[in-house]
Amino acid sequence: MSHNILSIAGTDPSGGAGIQADLKAFSALGGYGMTVVTALVAQTTTGVSEVHDVPAAFVRSQLDTLLTDVRVDAVKIGMLSNTEVIEVVAAAIDAYDLPNVVVDPVMVAKSGDRLLAADAVEALRTELLPRADLITPNLPEAADLLGEAEAADEAQMRSQAERLLALGPRRVLLKGGHLSGATSTDLLLSADAPAEVLTAERVSTTNTHGTGCTLSSAVAALRPQRPTWSQAVREAKDYLTEALRHADELEVGKGKGPVHHFHAWWGR
Ligand SMILES: Nc1ncnc2c1ncn2[C@@H]1O[C@H](COP(=O)(O)OP(=O)(O)OP(=O)(O)O)[C@@H](O)[C@H]1O
Ligand SMILES: Cc1ncc(COP(=O)(O)O)c(N)n1
């Protein structure tokens, strides 16, 4: 059986993050990829120069057009720009009863540029988080969602993940990529299963553009093919680590380059 995986996100012309990264991960992991574009972003490995938001009504039009035709087996949600777009996406999750909803609460690109309006964090917290089967915040996003300081160690990550779970998502994957050390550790917390610590070797590379997009998309692609969320998340993390290990083989741009999707797949 084939699986249709939808990305609702913004673009990256350099192909390392956003919808372009999502499609690469879906394809490499055996999903049929589809997209609803929320924002056109002029960005590359060195940063964002301009953002052109797609009007919320046209995001709705893309969703309605697609979802009245095609069955969706999992959804990855990335950059949503503003409150209106968040409301449209939340309404579509309900109206079409979308399954396996993975929300990557994208707020700020690695370059420091904002991808979500500051006044839209509240809508993300109240409208989208409770509709998510899994959320995948990094440490600054977790802090922003909770209105707290950033976690500085694994113990603080654990207590923040618990408070994020209380905001309504079925599961939380809190990513520790922004901490330092020999390993890069994430925490998976859910209401109905024991907490899991996912540890991987910290790959020595500056080519980390789109790691968050890749991880959340890999989970969405794998979830319909695996019996549990835990299994999908663990394999997605392995996939990302492999893609990071081969990132330096690519020659893309002068800044933080992308991870290597297809090599990651060949390595499996
Ligand atoms: N150098 C690295 N080596 C191995 N894994 C890493 C490295 N950097 C990040 N990761 C992993 O990549 C995933 C994304 O991590 P991170 O916390 O950096 O998220 P992010 O900031 O959302 O990514 P992005 O900036 O692309 O949105 C996590 O699983 C994290 O553990
Ligand atoms: C459209 C879009 N979505 C998400 C990210 C975050 O990825 P990163 O933090 O690695 O730049 C991005 N840069 N662009």
TrEMBL record:
Pfam families: Phos_pyr_kin
Domain Pyridoxamine kinase/Phosphomethylpyrimidine kinase: residue ranges: 12-260
Gene Ontology terms, MF aspect: ATP binding; hydroxymethylpyrimidine kinase activity; phosphomethylpyrimidine kinase activity
SUPFAM superfamilies documented for this protein: Ribokinase-like
4Fe-4S listed as a keyword: no
Pathway assignment: Cofactor biosynthesis; thiamine diphosphate biosynthesis; 4-amino-2-methyl-5-diphosphomethylpyrimidine from 5-amino-1-(5-phospho-D-ribosyl)imidazole: step 3/3
EC number(s) per entry: 2.7.1.49, 2.7.4.7
GO cellular component, one term: cytosol
Top-level taxon of origin: Bacteria
Reactions catalysed, as given in the entry: 4-amino-2-methyl-5-(phosphooxymethyl)pyrimidine + ATP = 4-amino-2-methyl-5-(diphosphooxymethyl)pyrimidine + ADP; 4-amino-5-hydroxymethyl-2-methylpyrimidine + ATP = 4-amino-2-methyl-5-(phosphooxymethyl)pyrimidine + ADP + H(+)
Swiss-Prot/TrEMBL keywords: ATP-binding, Kinase, Nucleotide-binding, Thiamine biosynthesis, Transferase
GO biological processes: thiamine biosynthetic process
Entries under InterPro entries matching the protein: HMP/HMP-P_kinase_dom, PM/HMP-P_kinase-1, Ribokinase-like
PANTHER family, per database record: HYDROXYMETHYLPYRIMIDINE_PHOSPHOMETHYLPYRIMIDINE KINASE THI20-RELATED, PHOSPHOMETHYLPYRIMIDINE KINASE
Its biological purpose: Catalyzes the phosphorylation of hydroxymethylpyrimidine phosphate (HMP-P) to HMP-PP, and of HMP to HMP-P.
Record protein name field: Bifunctional hydroxymethylpyrimidine kinase/phosphomethylpyrimidine kinase
Organism phylogeny: Bacteria, Bacillati, Actinomycetota, Actinomycetes, Streptosporangiales
Gene: thiD
